[in-house]
Amino acid sequence: MRTIKVGIIGSGFSATSHIEALKRIPYVEVMGVVSRSLDKAKKLAEQYSIKYAYDTVRDLLNNKDIEVVHNCTPNFLHYQLNKEILKSGKHVLSEKPLALNSIESEELVRLANEKNLINGICFNYRHYPMIEETKARIANNEYGKPHLVSGGYVQDWCLYSSDYSWRMDSSLNGPSRAVADIGSHWCDTIQMILGKKIVRVFADLITVHSRRQKPYKEDSTFSNERHEQFEEVSIDTEDAGHVLIQFDDGLKGMFHVSQVSAGKKNHFHFMISMSDGTIEWDQEKPNDLWIGKRAQASELLVKDPNLLSPEAQALTHYPGGHQEGWPDGLKNLFINFYDHVASSNSNKKYNYSTFEDGHYIMKIIDAILKSNERGQWVDV
Questions:
Q1: Are 359 and 109 in contact (CB under 8 A)?
Q2: Are 5 and 65 in contact (CB under 8 A)?
Q3: Rounded CA gap, 38 and 169, in Å?
Q4: Can you give the three-state secondary structure of 221-259, one letter per residue?
Q5: Do the beta carbons of residue 186 and residue 153 sit within 8 Å?
Q6: What single string gives the DSSP state of each residue in 131-189?
Q7: Quick check: 48 and 23 in contact, CB under 8 A?
Q8: Where are the beta strands (DSSP E) in the chain?
Q9: Which residues fall within 8 angstroms of residue 65, CB to CB, at 6 or more apart?
Q10: CA-based angle 194:195:198, to the nearest 5?
Q11: Residue partners of 349: CB distance under 8 A and separation at least 6
C-alpha cells in the first residue's frame, strides 16, 4: 500500500493525540505540523520525528507531498481552515465541531462535494468495539425494537469558578459549550448505533458559574492549576443541561451533559431499552457491555474478539483480557478514514463521520439552543 503523507494544524492535546494515533498506522506518515509558534511546531516535529515544522497554514498547504490535513485547532478556526484545506485540494479530517453554526457547516458540505474530496469529523466514540457490537445486535433485532433511549456525557473540569480555558469564551468556542463539545459526541454515537436521526429536541441548559476567573497565563483545557493573577469575566455558555429528544421513527429519549459534576472525568454513557432486553455502556469501562434481561439473569459481555460480531471484531486489535480504550478508538477512526483515502473502490461503505454528519450535528446544536431560549420543542 502506498504511503499517505499528512499535515497537522495545531499543537495542543488534539494534535498530539492525532499524531500518536497516526503513528500506529504503517502506511501513514505525518510529514508536517503547523503552530502559531514556530518554536512549538519545531519542538513537536522533533519529538515525533516529523520532517517539516511551519508557523503558517499556507506553508503547510503549499507542500505538494501532503495529501491529507488534520484540523486540530480551536473551534472558531474550524470553518475558515476547513474551507482553506478543501480549496487547496487536500482531503481533510477536522476536529469537531465542523463550524460554529449550521450555516457555516452547510457551506463546507457543499464545497467538499464540489471538490470531490474525502472529508471527516473526529467523532471517535463510534469506533469502539463495544459500540459496534451494540449497533450489530440492535440491527439484528436480538432484543426487539428499541422503545426508550437515555444517557449522557458528564465531566468535572469546569466545577469551580476558578476553572477557565478558551472554551469558556463564546467568541472562540461558539454559542454552546457543554452541548457542542461533549453532547455532540453523544448525539453522533447514538444516531449511528440506532441508524436513526434526532429530529426534535426540548432543552433546558444551565450555567452554574455566570462569572469565572480568567488567568492572565493561558492553560490547557483540563489543567487543575490555580492562579493568583486573574480577571473576572462573564460566561454566556452552558455548564450543563438536559435534552429531551425524538427520532425520525417516533422513538423518544433524553440525554444530559455536565462539565460541573465532581468525580466524573469522562463519563460518556447510554442505555437503550428494547422489548426483550436493555443494553448499557459506559466509556469509562469501555470493554464492558451490560445486557439486561427480565426473565433470566442479566449478562456482562466483556470485550473478546472471539465473542463479538464480525463488525466489532474488525475494531478489536488485542485478545480478550487486553484492554482497549480511548486511543484505540481514535486509531480505529483513522484506519477507517485512511482506508477510504487509499481505496479505489468507490462503492465501499465507511463508518467514520463525514462533513454531512457533522453538519447535521450542528443543526441539532442550533435546535437545542433555540429550544432552551424558547422553552419549547424545536424541530432540527
A1: yes
A2: yes
A3: 25
A4: CCCCCCCCCEEEEECCCCCEEEEEEEECCCCEEEEEEEC
A5: yes
A6: HHHHHHHHHTTSS--EEEEEEEEE--TT-STT---GGG-HHHH-S-SHIIIIIHHHHHH
A7: yes
A8: 4-9, 28-34, 52-54, 68-71, 91-94, 119-121, 146-154, 198-206, 211-215, 230-234, 240-247, 252-258, 267-274, 277-282, 288-292, 299-302, 378-379
A9: 5, 31
A10: 80
A11: none
Does the predicted model carry a pTM greater than 0.90? yes
Model confidence over 137-194: pLDDT tens digits?
Answer: 999 999 999 999 999 999 999 999 999 999 999 999 999 999 999 999 999 999 999 9
Please, what are the domains in the chain?
4-123 (3.40.50.720), 125-379 (3.30.360.10)
Q: Which three cell numbers stand for residue 249?
A: 421513527
- Do residues 109 and 115 touch, judged by C-beta distance below 8 A? no
How far apart, in whole angstroms, are the C-alpha atoms of residue 83 and residue 61? Answer: 12
Backbone angles phi, psi at 190, to 5 degrees: -70, -35
Task: Note the pLDDT tens digit of each residue in 367-379.
Answer: 999 999 999 999 9
